[in-house]
Amino acid sequence: PTADFEIPLRELRGLHDSNDRIRASLRKLQTTLIAARLPNGKTRTVQLLGGCDIDDDERTDGLLKYDFHRKLVPLLRHSEIYARMEMKVLTAMSSKYSLALYEALSLRINLRRSSEDITLETLRNWLSVEEGKLATWNTLRQKAIEPAVKEVNALSPFEVSIEPIKRGRKVERVRVTWAKKEPFSPSEQAAAREVNRARTGRKARVSGTVETVADRPTLTDDEIQKGYEAAAQVGARLDKHAAYSDWQNMVSSFAEPVKNPVAHFIAFCKERARSLE
């Protein structure tokens, strides 16, 4: 039997008032399947996340209780793949094709070779493209390859490229090339910063498109003091100016300005204070 785990909803919810985003993320995890080859040659397919019990929105001190399927636990415990996969990178990715490509690269990143020529069918397997989906090269490239390559390059410690190999006009194979980013290199540091940023605006940043963001908000000294006092009531004395600067950086990345900056800053300070308990 597997153990039940629990986590306070406020740690997952952050500054949001509702559990809607949490519920949506849980559904995504519960409908994600892992396929693994067993030592006996059989293939095991199992849900990434098992059962979940979540309290109603009205309960500010609510809990999420969850478990993992008993057939998943040994895969996670003994898997060399997940030992090399950082959870922050996994949770930052928005595309299932990105996750699948990252997993495929994690299996190969320490091999002597750094590239491989593969068929389109093999590439579809790497990306976990469902049978019958993205049947043409153009749709496969636009819907799966390009988004996956951009996210892996932007969010992970790996660099990857996928280039078509043609015979005449027809794409018959692709060349996948990969490498680890140099430690402390600009590309590695940029990826680390991105996975620690708010998700708002990430799609535009990764794709290189322009997205309108909110102006940098300002508060008066008295309003900043309110956040400091709210944190003190929770039990922590914050550097209020550092907290104010961090809050400004966070909300300035939002697509829309916050409706009540003072209340939002107070909630931010309380949440930071709780994280220091």
UniProtKB/TrEMBL annotation:
Residues 10-105 form the Initiator Rep protein WH1 domain. InterPro entries: Initiator_Rep_WH1, WH-like_DNA-bd_sf, WH_DNA-bd_sf. GO terms for molecular function: DNA-directed DNA polymerase activity. Belongs to the initiator RepB protein family. Coiled coil: none annotated. This is Replication initiation protein. It holds the Pfam family Rep3_C. GO terms for biological process: DNA replication initiation.
